[in-house]
Amino acid sequence: MADGVGSNQLFEQWRKQFEEGAQAWSRLITQTAPASPSPTQDPTAFWRPVLDQGVQTWAKLFAQTPATPELLTQWKQFLDQWIDAWSKVLGQAMGTEQFAKLMGQSLDQMLVTAAPAKKVVDQQIEQALQALNLPSRSQLTGIAKQLVELEDRIDRLEDSMNAKLRRLAEREPK
Amino acid sequence: MAQERFTSGFAAEAPAETIKQWQEELERGFRRLRNLHGLVTNPVEPKTGQTPRVEIYKRNKSRLYRYESARSHRTPVLFVPNLGISRPYIFDLMPGGSFIEHMTRRGFDFYLLDWGVFGPEDNDLSVEECVTKILPRMARRVLETSGTDELSVLGYCMGAPISASFVASHPDVRVKNFVNMAGPFDFAKVGLFGLWLGKDNFNVDRFVDTLGSVPADMVKAGFKLLKPTMDLSTNLNLWWNLWNDKYLEGFQALNKWANEYVAFPGEFFRQWVRDFYQDNKLYRDELVMGGRPIRLERITCPVFVVGAKEDYIAPPECVRALLDKVGSREKEYIELPGGHISLIAGRGAAVHCWPKVSAWLGARS
Questions:
Q1: pTM of the prediction?
Q2: Would you call B25 and A72 a contact, using CB atoms and an 8 Å cutoff?
Q3: Would the ipTM clear 0.90, i.e. be above it?
């Protein structure tokens, strides 16, 4: 019996730690999104049921004698719920307008920085290949595009020939 | 203390049944280690796409395949999956776990449009070209090969709005049935991607003008971001089921597919994001392609829509929206358990989705 009380205390300590972690997460979200018009969502809402269930399950399992492999199944379920809760928390954070804006701005900045560098590198590679008398990527791409156009023309010719043949066949007296 | 009670309880008081259970668990543990060793030291390339097929037509990177079947339905089925993102062998993953195999066994003359893997030379390919040039040719080839004058069109994911645009704008091609599987139509309800790709948050012109296309790694990053815990739960489930050889076989095939991303051609991506995600033109009846206005109300054949309850790529409400727009008298919507992929691939799909789709089509083919 005393063991059960001891393990319960241990789990209570765990729970306290987790809840403090959740509060820190909540504070972080509030700091990064001060202009949010909607009330700040409480991520601990996702964690609490999972933690409560986990703690209860483990307390029960530790109090149970003898232990069976069911213990591992319970552990797996706990991890699944844990991952699911995290997924919901992250989904909620990423589903905000602030996150979308931040991501868009970062991507834009990356593109603005990358564009001139890419242009310079492309030009230099093109010049180097020309000096070596080798075809560049843009030249090969150009040939591939011409092939696609040719293929398209052949298809169109085939289509019109087929249409004419069908019309001729329809006109033929039976 | 707890440790002492645990061991003493196990050794002295455990019933025979508990000991047996632990022995089984230990055996599973050994099998896990053996399979893990095999995975790391001798990875086997899983065989996918094994249903026999013939290439009917090719245009640039796109291919049209016809699958062997003991044809018992007159109307052929043209299956139009997503362009870019991933390879279509997910629909024919492995024997016993293949949507295509299911359809051919049900007697459908089944055709798959494989859009192909794109390179920089395809950056000019647009959604418009797919709708006005590629799809009409593919549909005509299906009719010619099958010897019929009408076909059923089955669109999956973005293949659904693309093929619906084709059906709505090409009355000369007779479509007997249209099936939408997890294809988004009302992009105002499309979830996280809709938010991230919104006009205020994403400059699609700068993106395409700078990069030329959407590289496969970037497509991968976008999808990973959509569900960041996915890899964690996949690996946890792998460890949990690693003892099971059958699970491992399925996992390897699925994992191969899940890690093979396909780039988007630049112009396709520009038009897809601008016209569909940002302006929602198809749903608002504002889309014009090849000079033809695309009006979904012109789809008058029977329509079947399948949504997945936990689909975060195309949430059920944006999939179901097709029914509000088509001019069909006969239209039906079902919502099945699972996500965007598990709707059409895997054990759940074989139980919930495939039989419903084949039964609906079978009754009208």
A1: 0.80
A2: yes
A3: no
